[in-house]
Amino acid sequence: MSPPSTATPRRIAALALPALVVLAAEPLYVLVDTAVVGHLGSVELAAIAVGGTVMSVAAWFGTLMAYGTTGRAARRFGAGDRPAAVAEGVQASWLALGVGLLLALLGLIGAGPVAHLLAGDEQIADAAAGWMRIAAFGAPGLLLAAAGNGWMRGVQDTRRPLGIVLGANVLSAVLCPILVYPLGLGLTGSAIANVTAQTVGGLLFLFALVRETRALRPIPSIIVRQVVLGRDLLIRGAAFQACFLSATAVASRFGVAAVGAHQIGLQLWFFAALALDAVAIAAQSLVGAALGAGDADQARDVARRVTVAGGVAAVVLAALAAAGARVIPGFFTPDPAVHDQAMILWPWFVGLLPFAGVVYALDGVFIGAGDVAFLRNVTILSAVLGFLPAIWLAYAFDLGLGGVWAGLGLFTFGRFVPLVWRWRSPRWVVLGAAR
């Protein structure tokens, strides 16, 4: 068997393909959920757009937890210390539980005010708030699953997460249409299905952790180090959330059809992003293991391979999206006004994907290398100087969804150029079991 850090195409595929299914499962479920709710009406579709964007804050924390844990665990695994790698997962799970409970409480308290702040219509805001109050209960399970994914990826085990995530999301995908339509629960049924998937997934990851080790007590010093070392990912993630929350708020001001189309485009963008992140997940694990083992040449080889793979995969997705431009929006809603609005943002969606594929791959390389301070700075500058000014100017000058998605274009290119430059430099290659 190849050493843990060997970046053969077969090993990259062995890590990336199961990760692809895991990454795609959640956004695919969200797409199914959006399609189910979209047939209730435009107000319900707009409500889940607002509510889903707010609840993505919990998913953002989960991504931070998974990525940070993967990098730390991978370096220890590459250095030959699997128990230490698993211990990172134990402490990350304690952190996940605490943060998840806090987010659930904040979701219950703040659902109403936040929904009314983001939505431009009272009916949409009320519906979104009701959905969020139920969906908030899924936050602890969501974060526990993220921590579990993180340490398993760090030890290069992507098969167990595959079974857990698929099982939980298939259960929820079956529940959603049943609860929404035959049982007549509408948006409430959608929220219950979400909570079910997230809670079941979190419990299954906890069970896997207990089977792996009996050293389960919390160690505050390690948790604090994880929090401190994860601060750059947190700040970087905050920039993303500010951008996407602002985009939804601006799209809501352009009307129900516009925000419905934006929800479709944004969920497809998230789906493509997480699907492309499968190669980046392999990069995190392999780059971290190579650097932990002191193999700088192998780390550079992984970076080169995943950058090319990310770009090629994104071109394929862009071609599929272009071919389905007139068909795909109809899967989510029969409303012709929403279809017309979707055609405004579609050229942006298709044209940006190839560049985004390279960006996501390099994100994985630098997270695996622990070079997250650079990622933080690039993301903040791209948001402050590109995305946010563009979408608020779109609102001020009534530029519609085209203006909103032009901002996304600036955000993408503002990251693409410096990340490629960093990739070609030696500054991210730092050897050792920890950074």
Summarize it:
The chain is mostly helical.
How would you characterize this protein structure?
This protein has 435 residues and is mainly α. It has one domain. It is 83% helix and 0% strand. Helix 1 runs parallel beside helix 6, helix 3 (82-118) packs antiparallel against helix 4 and helix 10 (256-292) runs parallel beside helix 12 (336-368). The protein is globular. The protein starts with 8 loop residues before the first helix and ends in a 12-residue tail after the last helix. This is Putative DNA-damage-inducible protein F. Keywords: Cell membrane, Membrane, Transmembrane, Transmembrane helix, Transport.
Task: Walk me through the topology.
Layout: H1 9-38, H2 42-78, H3 82-118, H4 122-135, H5 139-154, H6 159-180, H7 187-212, H8 220-229, H9 231-253, H10 256-292, H11 296-323, H12 336-368, H13 372-396, H14 400-423
Pfam families: MatE
InterPro entries: DinF-like (IPR044644), MATE_fam (IPR002528), MdtK-like (IPR048279)
Organism: Actinoplanes missouriensis (strain ATCC 14538 / DSM 43046 / CBS 188.64 / JCM 3121 / NBRC 102363 / NCIMB 12654 / NRRL B-3342 / UNCC 431)
